[in-house]
Write a structure and sequence with these properties.
Distance between the termini: 20 Å
Number of helices: 2
Number of strands: 3
Largest sheet: 3 strands, antiparallel
Low-confidence stretches: none
Strand content: 15-25%
Length: 65
């Protein structure tokens, strides 16, 4: 399932790496595309959306509305 999040505080390549590592820790099979310019994070994963969202928040980022 493809899920897209807006992450307003996604500012740089290090932020992208942090989110990617956090998602890969809970789902090593996940495919993640994050763009610090558009502030979008696209995740293809079988995990529930709530789990993915919580993982991003636990990594120190906020989810936009």
């Amino acid at each position: 399932m493809l899920t897209t999040f807006t992450v307003p505080d996604l500012a740089c390549g290090a932020c992208v790496a942090t989110i990617t590592q956090a998602i890969n820790a809970v789902d090593p099979q996940a495919k993640i595309v994050a763009n610090s310019q558009t502030k979008l994070v696209e995740i293809e994963s079988e995990l529930p959306v709530m789990t993915l969202e919580a993982t991003i928040v636990d990594a120190g980022y906020t989810i936009g509305k």
